[in-house]
Design brief:
about 290 residues; mainly alpha; MetI-like fold; 13 helices
Amino acid sequence: MANNKSSLISEKRTKALLTLVLTIVSIIYVLPVVAVVVNSFKRNTFVKTETFALPSEQSYAGFDNFIKGMTFGNYPFSSSVLYSVIITVLSTSLILIFCSMAAWYIARVNSKFCKIVYFLCVFSMVVPFQMVMFTLSKTADSLKLNTPWTIPIVYLGFGAGLAIFMFVGFVKSIPLEIEEAAAIDGCGPIRTFFSVVLPMLKPTLISVGILEIMWVWNDYLLPVLVLDVNEYRTIPIHIQYLKGSYGTVDLGATMALILLSIIPVIVFYLAAQKHIIKGVAAGAVKG
């Protein structure tokens, strides 16, 4: 009995210690977001001098930072929002459709070619973007992939690694007999995929979609290298150009636009967060 009591006490202490450590880690991760929210309502001078202080009567700027950020310069913020939405929606749609089809083929066709393609896709996840960014920029210009309507093709190439890895793992967990039954009923490969396989991929589709949306929406480096920033600006690029004379930056307006840019992603993530764990776990069954 004494041993049981001591083990229970030790277990409770361990759980309490883990809870404390994870709480501290969570606070550390949340602090930058809190700082953005707080400073988005401060005047520019106080953002620099009282970064972590709450807005006071003297430092409170109201919604002036949001208005200033959206009306700064001669490039409309609404155009940046539109281009970010177009690029994000098109890129995510291409990745989900083409990568799920490719993953289904790789998982079902047991050939050396498919294995090589699969391992190349997995290998692409560990290649740093900085290694290929200059060559990619030149290639994108040569192939006319430097517009918001064509840059999703570039995102498809970079997002295929993770997407195919997760889709292949989930497809392998789907019983082959279901597809054989569809073939007996007269379904061809395309109809089998869209009518049978794709609906079963829903958990992984949602999780991959969330991850890709968060990546593409917040991406700065690829658009600034590929797009003509004088004509096409996404929200991260628009924020980068909030500079006045002699390179001065209005930090209050910058924080306000950063807050506006992260709100849609946070809301979307919170609404669909349960599907991320479910999709990742499902895709790792037989990865």
